[in-house]
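User: Could you check the structure of this?
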Amino acid sequence: MKGENKKQQHRINEQIRVREVRIVGDDIESVVLPTSKALQMAEERDVDLVEISPNANPPVCKLIDYSKYLYQLKKKAKDMKAKQVKVEVKELRFGPQTGEADYAFKLKHAQEFLNEGNKVKAYVFFKGRSIVFKEQGEVLLLRLANDLEEYAKVESMPVLEGKKMIIILAPKKAGQPKKSQQKRDNEAAEAQAKTAESKEQEGPNPNSPFAGLADKLAEKE
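Assistant: Sure, the predicted structure tokens are below.
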């Protein structure tokens, strides 16, 4: 990297003009050295003296290949960006007098959106004089939030904006809806019942030290 006149995001080598710096690294114990001595060490190792924390007192530097350092920073930023889940806002439109079949259809879609990690913006649209049913619209949105409590948390309660009453639901955890306590208790009870039933079907363990004890006692009598 030495000798290259490229725009850099860090000061390196002779660009570092403070009196002393702190050197850190995997193979170096943190130590404060005169900048001239640090530059000499970088020269001996055929690497660059790179200032990574200019606001520290003294500034913190590393003895590294600056080109490789920039590559690692870019790779790390790219990996972090790839891991970030892109959250979209999916919209669901209801009418103030939505029928049960339509409601169930849209409820299923809302579950799918939330499981994918997306937010749901559900709204009741009031057309013409249907605004008189705004309380009915609020009840519908609250019902939706209640039916989705395993999948979502309410980010914004129902609010009237013009001809729309809107509620915002955010996923509790992308791809893994949270179960209610009642559902977890029911599943635990079912698992215990299945285990007990399985043991009854298997009968006594023939390898048990008490196997056949009842029969032996009966013979003695």
